[in-house]
Design goal:
The chain is an all-beta fold. The chain has strands at about 1-5, 10-15, 20-30, 45-50, 55-60, 70-80, 90-100.
Length: about 110
């Protein structure tokens, strides 16, 4: 989960070898949260160079009006790998955006 106004940091890992170049699409889709109101739509092509195994994408969330207890979500999907690559066991992810993150010690991430 991420607090509204903070970026959601999504780590995409390349598994099964790192030889050669490959790329895939990273897209966001609305859930209970709508882009432009809860998060900023993020659609990018991730390009992995030979030997590269990890990319981090930041999806901006917006400081929406509402109660501290409000929770919305959106989807992240990985699509269309090239160069014979495969999308692994987790090709999509649900990201929760909360008004406030309760119960977390100061300085700790959810």
């Amino acid at each position: 989960a991420v607090k509204k106004g903070d970026p959601a940091q999504i780590v995409v890992k390349r598994k099964g070898g790192s030889k050669g170049r490959t790329s895939l699409k990273f897209i966001t889709e609305p859930g209970t949260g709508v882009h432009g109101k809860v998060y900023k739509d993020t659609n990018v092509t991730l390009e992995f160079a030979d030997g590269e195994t990890e990319k981090t994408v930041q999806v901006p969330t917006l400081d929406f009006a509402g109660k501290a207890t409000d929770v919305y979500d959106f989807q992240v999907k990985l699509l269309h790998p090239d160069q014979g690559s495969l999308v692994g066991f987790i090709p999509e992810l649900t990201v929760q955006v909360m008004g406030e993150i309760v119960g977390q010690p100061e300085g700790k991430e959810a």
